[in-house]
Amino acid sequence: MSDVLKEKSVRREKKTSKAPSEGSHGIKVKDIAGKTKDSLSNVSCIDDHHDENTRMVVTVENTYQLGPHKRFPAHAALEILKDVLPNYLQEEKYEVEWSRQMTKTICEVIRARVKELMIRRYKLVVLVHIGQLAGQSMQISSRCLWDASYDTFASWSFKNTSLYSVATVFAVYYE
User: Fold this and answer.
1) Reported pTM
2) 171, 144 in Cβ contact below 8 A?
3) Which residue has the higher pLDDT, 80 or 175?
Protein backbone atom coordinates (compact mmCIF):
# COMPACT_ATOMS: atom_id res chain seq x y z
CA MET A 1 0.00 0.00 0.00
CA SER A 2 2.80 2.41 0.81
CA ASP A 3 4.49 1.65 -2.55
CA VAL A 4 1.35 2.77 -4.38
CA LEU A 5 1.25 6.03 -2.41
CA LYS A 6 4.95 6.64 -3.13
CA GLU A 7 4.40 6.06 -6.85
CA LYS A 8 1.46 8.49 -6.87
CA SER A 9 3.47 11.15 -5.08
CA VAL A 10 6.41 10.67 -7.49
CA ARG A 11 4.07 10.99 -10.50
CA ARG A 12 2.41 14.07 -9.00
CA GLU A 13 5.82 15.62 -8.33
CA LYS A 14 6.92 14.94 -11.91
CA LYS A 15 3.78 16.58 -13.27
CA THR A 16 4.10 19.70 -11.15
CA SER A 17 7.87 20.05 -11.07
CA LYS A 18 9.44 22.85 -13.05
CA ALA A 19 12.78 22.72 -14.77
CA PRO A 20 15.13 25.67 -14.54
CA SER A 21 15.16 27.81 -17.66
CA GLU A 22 18.28 28.29 -19.74
CA GLY A 23 18.57 31.87 -18.55
CA SER A 24 18.66 30.99 -14.86
CA HIS A 25 21.94 29.01 -15.08
CA GLY A 26 21.11 27.15 -11.88
CA ILE A 27 21.33 30.22 -9.64
CA LYS A 28 20.77 29.48 -5.97
CA VAL A 29 18.64 31.93 -4.04
CA LYS A 30 18.15 32.11 -0.27
CA ASP A 31 14.60 32.38 0.93
CA ILE A 32 13.43 34.00 4.18
CA ALA A 33 14.22 30.92 6.29
CA GLY A 34 17.83 30.92 5.04
CA LYS A 35 17.47 27.78 2.93
CA THR A 36 18.83 27.83 -0.58
CA LYS A 37 16.59 26.97 -3.49
CA ASP A 38 16.99 26.95 -7.23
CA SER A 39 15.76 29.93 -9.20
CA LEU A 40 12.96 28.56 -11.33
CA SER A 41 11.09 30.12 -14.21
CA ASN A 42 8.61 28.74 -16.64
CA VAL A 43 9.65 28.59 -20.27
CA SER A 44 7.14 28.09 -22.99
CA CYS A 45 8.09 26.84 -26.39
CA ILE A 46 6.26 26.78 -29.67
CA ASP A 47 6.25 23.52 -31.52
CA ASP A 48 7.16 23.85 -35.19
CA HIS A 49 4.54 21.27 -36.07
CA HIS A 50 2.57 22.36 -39.15
CA ASP A 51 -0.96 21.20 -39.71
CA GLU A 52 -2.39 20.43 -43.12
CA ASN A 53 -5.32 22.71 -42.30
CA THR A 54 -3.20 25.82 -41.79
CA ARG A 55 -3.39 28.47 -44.46
CA MET A 56 -0.46 29.32 -46.62
CA VAL A 57 0.68 32.91 -46.19
CA VAL A 58 0.45 34.82 -49.42
CA THR A 59 3.07 37.48 -49.89
CA VAL A 60 2.09 40.30 -52.18
CA GLU A 61 4.47 42.77 -53.73
CA ASN A 62 3.96 46.46 -53.02
CA THR A 63 2.13 48.31 -55.78
CA TYR A 64 3.09 51.76 -54.52
CA GLN A 65 -0.41 52.83 -55.49
CA LEU A 66 -1.57 55.54 -53.12
CA GLY A 67 -5.00 56.15 -54.60
CA PRO A 68 -7.75 54.09 -56.19
CA HIS A 69 -8.03 53.71 -59.95
CA LYS A 70 -11.77 54.10 -59.59
CA ARG A 71 -13.49 55.85 -56.69
CA PHE A 72 -16.17 53.92 -54.81
CA PRO A 73 -19.64 54.79 -56.20
CA ALA A 74 -21.58 55.82 -53.10
CA HIS A 75 -24.66 56.60 -55.21
CA ALA A 76 -24.77 52.99 -56.48
CA ALA A 77 -24.51 51.70 -52.90
CA LEU A 78 -27.33 54.06 -51.92
CA GLU A 79 -29.51 52.64 -54.69
CA ILE A 80 -28.79 49.14 -53.40
CA LEU A 81 -29.87 50.18 -49.90
CA LYS A 82 -33.04 51.78 -51.28
CA ASP A 83 -33.85 48.53 -53.07
CA VAL A 84 -32.98 45.98 -50.37
CA LEU A 85 -34.58 47.52 -47.26
CA PRO A 86 -38.14 47.86 -48.64
CA ASN A 87 -37.98 44.44 -50.32
CA TYR A 88 -37.16 42.69 -47.04
CA LEU A 89 -39.08 44.83 -44.54
CA GLN A 90 -42.17 46.27 -46.27
CA GLU A 91 -44.82 43.89 -44.89
CA GLU A 92 -43.03 42.70 -41.75
CA LYS A 93 -44.03 43.15 -38.11
CA TYR A 94 -41.39 43.72 -35.46
CA GLU A 95 -40.34 40.68 -33.42
CA VAL A 96 -37.15 40.47 -31.38
CA GLU A 97 -35.82 37.10 -32.57
CA TRP A 98 -36.88 37.73 -36.15
CA SER A 99 -35.12 41.11 -36.25
CA ARG A 100 -31.89 39.61 -34.94
CA GLN A 101 -31.78 37.10 -37.79
CA MET A 102 -33.06 39.60 -40.36
CA THR A 103 -30.26 42.10 -39.62
CA LYS A 104 -27.70 39.39 -40.41
CA THR A 105 -29.52 38.41 -43.58
CA ILE A 106 -29.88 41.98 -44.83
CA CYS A 107 -26.21 42.70 -44.06
CA GLU A 108 -25.13 39.69 -46.12
CA VAL A 109 -27.41 40.64 -49.02
CA ILE A 110 -26.21 44.26 -49.07
CA ARG A 111 -22.58 43.21 -48.83
CA ALA A 112 -22.96 40.73 -51.70
CA ARG A 113 -24.72 43.27 -53.92
CA VAL A 114 -22.13 45.98 -53.22
CA LYS A 115 -19.30 43.52 -53.93
CA GLU A 116 -20.91 42.86 -57.33
CA LEU A 117 -19.92 46.43 -58.23
CA MET A 118 -16.36 45.04 -58.46
CA ILE A 119 -14.59 48.05 -56.95
CA ARG A 120 -11.13 46.82 -55.95
CA ARG A 121 -9.09 47.74 -52.88
CA TYR A 122 -12.00 48.91 -50.73
CA LYS A 123 -12.89 47.32 -47.41
CA LEU A 124 -16.63 47.22 -46.81
CA VAL A 125 -18.40 47.55 -43.49
CA VAL A 126 -22.15 47.02 -43.52
CA LEU A 127 -24.31 47.92 -40.51
CA VAL A 128 -28.05 47.34 -40.22
CA HIS A 129 -30.18 48.39 -37.25
CA ILE A 130 -33.78 47.24 -36.87
CA GLY A 131 -35.96 48.49 -34.03
CA GLN A 132 -39.57 48.65 -32.93
CA LEU A 133 -41.41 51.78 -33.93
CA ALA A 134 -43.00 52.88 -30.65
CA GLY A 135 -42.65 56.66 -30.59
CA GLN A 136 -39.07 56.73 -29.34
CA SER A 137 -36.09 58.38 -30.94
CA MET A 138 -32.71 56.93 -31.75
CA GLN A 139 -29.41 58.49 -32.75
CA ILE A 140 -26.74 56.42 -34.46
CA SER A 141 -23.18 57.65 -34.79
CA SER A 142 -19.90 56.09 -35.81
CA ARG A 143 -16.24 57.03 -35.70
CA CYS A 144 -13.22 55.74 -37.54
CA LEU A 145 -9.95 56.80 -39.09
CA TRP A 146 -11.04 58.41 -42.33
CA ASP A 147 -9.44 59.80 -45.48
CA ALA A 148 -12.08 62.09 -46.97
CA SER A 149 -10.51 62.03 -50.43
CA TYR A 150 -10.98 58.24 -50.90
CA ASP A 151 -13.27 56.85 -48.18
CA THR A 152 -17.03 57.20 -48.38
CA PHE A 153 -20.31 55.82 -47.09
CA ALA A 154 -23.97 55.44 -47.99
CA SER A 155 -26.84 55.35 -45.52
CA TRP A 156 -30.57 54.84 -45.86
CA SER A 157 -33.42 54.56 -43.37
CA PHE A 158 -36.73 52.81 -43.79
CA LYS A 159 -39.84 52.52 -41.65
CA ASN A 160 -43.24 50.88 -41.85
CA THR A 161 -46.10 50.69 -39.33
CA SER A 162 -44.25 48.57 -36.73
CA LEU A 163 -40.49 48.88 -37.30
CA TYR A 164 -37.71 51.12 -38.51
CA SER A 165 -34.39 50.21 -40.05
CA VAL A 166 -31.17 52.07 -40.74
CA ALA A 167 -28.57 50.57 -43.07
CA THR A 168 -25.09 52.00 -43.63
CA VAL A 169 -22.31 50.89 -45.96
CA PHE A 170 -18.81 52.21 -45.27
CA ALA A 171 -16.22 51.89 -48.04
CA VAL A 172 -12.68 52.44 -46.77
CA TYR A 173 -9.80 52.47 -49.25
CA TYR A 174 -7.19 49.82 -48.51
CA GLU A 175 -3.71 50.87 -49.65
Assistant:
1) 0.63
2) no
3) 80
